[in-house]
Amino acid sequence: MAVSSEVSRPWVVDRRTASPVWPVAAGLVAFLLAFVSVGYLHAVAPPSLNPIRDTVSDYVYVPGVGGLFGFAVVMTALGSAALLVGMRYSPLRAHRLSYALMGVWCAGLALLPTFPTDRIVLGQMSVVGNIHRYLAVIAFVALPMAGLGIATALCSHEPLRRLGNWIRWTCAAASFGVLVLVAIHLPAIFPEKFGAVLLSGFVERIVLVVDFGLLAMIAAGIVIAGRKVRKVSTVDVAR
Questions:
Q1: Long-range Cβ pairs for the range 204-212 (8 Å, 24+)
Q2: In this predicted model, which residue has the larger pLDDT, 233 or 34?
Q3: Which run of H or E residues covers position 217?
Q4: Domain residue spans in the chain?
Q5: How far apart are CA 112 and CA 119, in angstroms?
Q6: From CA 70, how far away is CA 67, in angstroms rounded?
Q7: What is the pTM of this model?
Q8: If you average pLDDT over residues 191-199, what whole number do you get?
Q9: What would the mean pLDDT of 18-40 be, rounded to a whole number?
């Protein structure tokens, strides 16, 4: 007589399901192009632009090649959208809100080049410059919130639980960084005479590094899960 018991739930590949590898690969290429573009901007920027004080957005004012900033931002948005496509073909069942928040991150980035920032060092903010700031904050907030939902989906599968926990910690770090970035622009907390706003570029770059690390981990989760499309029960048959 056969007696069955569930020993584990290993992943098995369903070959009928489209692979998420190619969308994720396209996204990583887009991220690489963004990095190269921003790196080049920093390399040719005039001494008046200080990476500790000036945000990455300020590099739109690099003479002759400032358009590379817009290109880098759009590449990041497209790369993130590619990850969304990859999630569509993976077994990850993140909450719909996570997809919506990733969409907000992508849309916010895509709109940023349309509204150039005003340099903080000049001490003046236009309407367009303020819109740029609000879009950036919305995007920076949306990504870690989306990451938390994706982390929950990863943690529901034992092989990906550790990665999901790492993503949760990264989301917490990204959220804290955004709070610090917003706080140093509030005169009521850090009056400009203390020079706190002069650390804007440094803090923003830390947040960006954390965000790109988060995107890389999400990409890894999509690819790993894509190889293990559905769970089946292991049945022991005893005679």
A1: 204/55, 204/56, 205/51, 205/56, 206/177, 207/140, 207/174, 207/177, 207/178, 207/181, 208/56, 210/170, 210/173, 210/174, 210/177, 211/140, 211/143, 211/144, 211/174, 212/31, 212/35
A2: 34
A3: helix 200-226
A4: 11-231
A5: 15
A6: 5
A7: 0.82
A8: 59
A9: 91
